[in-house]
Amino acid sequence: KEPAAAIVETLKDVTSHEGEDAVFECRLSQETTQDAQWFLGDVPLQSNEMNEIRVQGTRHTLILRKVTLEDCGPISFKVGQHTSAA
């Protein structure tokens, strides 16, 4: 069983203007097959035309495209027992 990955680089708060993209990044201690999930408030985010979720090795990136005022709120990233929020 693989050891649990820990969050080594936490999310930073991002300020964006309406119509811009907001980019959030988190880095883990290791590559993992564990489920990693992004949330806006309590809503789990999926990769689609509005949100892009990327994983490159240990770096996990969320891009909210052309943000609106409705996108304002806490973003969190969860993997295993670890959570980071911005």
UniProtKB/TrEMBL annotation:
Residues 3-86 form the Ig-like domain. It is found in: Cytoplasm. The keyword Disulfide bond applies. The keyword Nucleotide-binding does not apply. Keywords: Cytoplasm, Disulfide bond, Phosphoprotein. It comes from the Eukaryota. It holds the Pfam family I-set. This is OBSCN protein. GO terms for cellular component: cytoplasm.
